[in-house]
Amino acid sequence: MATHIPVPKTNRARLDEHLPVDHRLSQVYRVGAGLMGLVLLAFGILGLIDKIGFFSTGGDEVAGLSTNGALSVLSICVGVLLFVGMVIGGNFASTVNMVLGIAFILSGFFNLALIDTTFNPLAFEIQNVLFSFVVGVLLMFFGMYGRVSSTLPHDNPYWKARHPEMAAREQSARAGQRELK
């Protein structure tokens, strides 16, 4: 009879673990959040400058994408949230990138269904849907970089969290090698 051995909760990787402040993964998360935040902020500000109606579906375009006041304000809010993630950095930036990436992909599918209907509150067209998919995938890439892979290096904090016994053995082996020198 097979028995199930429960894995202690301490061996599971958690999203709230803290990276060292100077860890190189934090820079990837910050750069990704900052770049995407800058793009969304610029798009939102340009949309508001054009003084487009809040829920207008008249086909007003900014930077090749259709927009209205609601989409502009939403873009600014998401851009600011990404900037907050960039400033805080670490796992917070990674998690914000992943969550917003999923939200952008879901938004793309949802708005794809609304394109040819009378209810299209964000004035989406096909180029907006494609933009939403691209931004979503990029945010997910930046958020998951160094966290999700089958071949994480052994100095990666996420690998250490998933393999604490092996990490402890490797650390004690390195300490023993330093003593021999």
Commentary on this structure:
- The protein is mainly alpha-helical.
- The protein has a domain of 124 residues.
- The chain is 62% helix and 2% strand.
- Helix 1 runs antiparallel to helix 2 and helix 2 runs antiparallel to helix 3.
- The longest helix is centred in the first third of the chain and has 26 residues.
- The mean pLDDT is 79.
As an assembly, this protein is single chain
Query: What's the overall average pLDDT, rounded?
Result: 79
Largest sheet: 2 strands, antiparallel
Widest β-sheet, arrangement of strands? 1-2
Alpha-carbon distance between the two ends: 50 Å
Helical segment count: 6
> How much of the sequence is in beta strands?
under 5%
Shape category: elongated
Secondary structure tally: strands:
2
Element pattern in H and E? HEEHHHHH
Helix content: 55-70%
Which residue ranges are poorly predicted, with pLDDT under 50 across at least 5 consecutive positions? none
| Rg measurement, Å | 22 Å
**Which secondary-structure class do the elements indicate?**
mainly alpha
Structure, briefly:
With 181 residues, the chain is mainly alpha-helical. It has a domain at 23-146. It contains 6 helices and 2 strands.
Topology:
Elements (H helix, E strand, L loop, with lengths): L23 H26 L11 E2 L2 E2 L2 H20 L1 H25 L11 H19 L12 H6 L1 H17 L1
Antiparallel strand pairs: 1-2
Helix pairs in contact: 1-2, 1-3, 1-4, 2-3, 3-4
Provide the descriptors you would attach to this structure in a database record.
181 residues; mainly alpha; two-stranded antiparallel ribbon; 6 helices; 2 strands
